[in-house]
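Same chain as my last thread, 211 residues:
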Amino acid sequence: MPINVLIADDHAIVRVGLRKILETQPDIVVTGEAADGGEAIALSGKILCDVIIMDIAMPGMSGIDALQSIRTLLPQIRIIILSMHDESEYVYRAFQAGASGYLLKGVAGDEVVTALRKVLQGEIYIGKGVEPLLHAEHSFVENPLAHLSSREKEVLKLVVEGKSSMEIADLLSLADNTPDVYRSRIMKKLGLKNTASLVKFALQHGIDSLK
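reply #2:
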């Protein structure tokens, strides 16, 4: 039986490269490609799919959020994270969410194939350079967004949704300048310098954690 693979990455060049690598194997078929987490969720329920190779940082919905949703809806599907992120926090959160493997971008093509075969056998695959991250002394045990107050999370969620300060003030019954105060406080807590980096950070760390 062929091994059916879905590739989820927002960079077309990565998807094309992975497809070429995987389809050198006679028993591997790439049955679909997704450019973001939401598309990955939708496709996983429509196409033949045994394994998903997925990035973390994608627009709209992060790979971690998509991973959690797919594992809930379709627990038989194995998911391998292929990411540029080599921080222990990302590795921890990926496995916590149900990933079957974690690879760093830049690995040789044969390691991707090996990982795919291993996870289908029920194994957890830890790629080269990843194992030390699992044992890092300062590995994160919780999402950094967990340090925000309930109101800060509400404000951040609306910022990520693209709401203006005036709209946030109306929705949360705040004074007109209060959302800007909250936004500055949130960025200071997270060590960020502008709204763009704040939105990217929130997407990478999972919007679900803002609930």
